[in-house]
Amino acid sequence: MYGSESGTVPDDSERTAFRRAEKKYKLYYEDTYKSSKKKRKPKPVDLSQVLDFKSILESYNQKAVLPPGIVPVQCGFYFIPGALSVEEQCQWIRESLTIFPQPPNRTNHNAFYGPISDLFSAAKERKVLVAEGSSNSECSSAVSNGDADRWKFFEEHEVSSKGNSGKSVSASVLLRKLRWSTLGLQFEWSKRNYDVSLPHNKIPDTLCQLAKRLAKPAMPPGEEFQPEGAIVNYFGPGDMLGGHLDDMEADWSKPIVSMSLGCKAIFLLGGKLREDPPIAMFLRSGDVVLMAGEARECFHGVPRIFTEGENAEIVPLEKQFSDEEDVCVLEYIQTSRINVNIRQVF
Ligand SMILES: O=C(O)CCC(=O)C(=O)O
Ligand SMILES: [Fe+2]
């Protein structure tokens, strides 16, 4: 079936070493479970080649020696296992759900719905976003997108009593489909560049201070990291981030500070060419990665997150979110990963 093994020409999806690694780790389900979505079972994947910095650190702390076979990964690449305390992880998970997607920050939903305010609390209150149509003069405080439909949150019972004739989508579905939000200087995905003309707030001060502290090991001596923009990526089961370079920032000697929250993931760090075979490593909640200098020129991506039971490795988070009032956060994070990556743009 696979070209390279059967001697035929490989198809496009496995033409480079990076794509082959993505395919190796990507989530596939067992065929037998196709019919029932709930019971779908992930296909087993060989994780023996995935670097595990947590266990490397643990063995180093016990024996003061590194396990055999550990080599420097890449100049300018820093992996800080467990850099964030459980409390810090909880704080940034909450902010990623409630504060970061708030306008003027944009999200993947802007293109279709216009800016959406208070998505998380709307999901918590089981609200429904309803299109009111451009002719309707009753203006919503929540959303609008120019001449197109105006979208406004309603209580569930209000929508059903209206007869549900128009276009509508529940806030909880929109929350599940949240893929990114951008903080500070707004990254324009379609142009893969920053659009400094778009209205924006500064990076929140606490996040700024944290990023400055975390960035230190990768900063040129005597300089301080200036957080100007951030991208928050939200991953659900089966989501992946394809191999890419982050090359729209002016000064590559400054690191990208990247924090992992929620379910465990596999991160692929490749070389300067997609043909270079990448190194796979686990990223857990609380881990921080810095990419500066040479590492800024390396392809990287996230082919897999682990949302199944203990493989997610989020027990400490589940304990923190065990109060009744946090049930929405808990349910979200049990099948999600959030990555906050902070950048100096100029
Ligand atoms: O999710 C991650 O850990 C990596 C994110 C990333 O590479 C990016 O947003 O550019
Ligand atoms: Fe990236």
Secondary structure blueprint with pairings:
Blueprint: H1 3-6, H2 17-25, H3 53-63, E1 77-80, H4 86-98, E2 106-107, H5 110-113, H6 119-124, E3 128-131, E4 151-154, H7 156-161, E5 168-170, H8 171-176, E6 180-184, E7 187-188, E8 193-194, H9 205-215, E9 229-235, E10 241-244, E11 256-262, E12 265-269, E13 279-283, E14 288-291, E15 300-305, H10 315-320, H11 327-334, E16 337-343
Antiparallel strand pairs: 1-14, 2-6, 3-4, 3-5, 6-9, 7-8, 9-16, 10-15, 11-14, 11-16, 12-13, 12-15
Fe (ii) ion binds next to loops.
Give a verbal description of the structure.
The structure is a single chain. Helices cover 24% and strands 21% of the residues. The chain has 346 residues and is of the alpha+beta class. It has helices spanning 3-6, 17-25, 53-63, 86-98, 110-113, 119-124, 156-161, 171-176, 205-215, 315-320, 327-334; strands spanning 77-80, 106-107, 128-131, 151-154, 168-170, 180-184, 187-188, 193-194, 229-235, 241-244, 256-262, 265-269, 279-283, 288-291, 300-305, 337-343. The strands form four sheets. The chain has a seven-stranded antiparallel beta sheet, covered by helices on one side. The protein has eleven helices and 16 strands. It folds into two domains: 24-103 and 179-343, Alpha-ketoglutarate-dependent dioxygenase AlkB-like (Jelly Rolls, Sandwich); 109-176, no CATH class. The protein is globular, with a radius of gyration of 22 Å. Fe cation binds at residues 244, 246, 300. Keywords: Dioxygenase, Iron, Metal-binding, Oxidoreductase. Belongs to the alkB family.
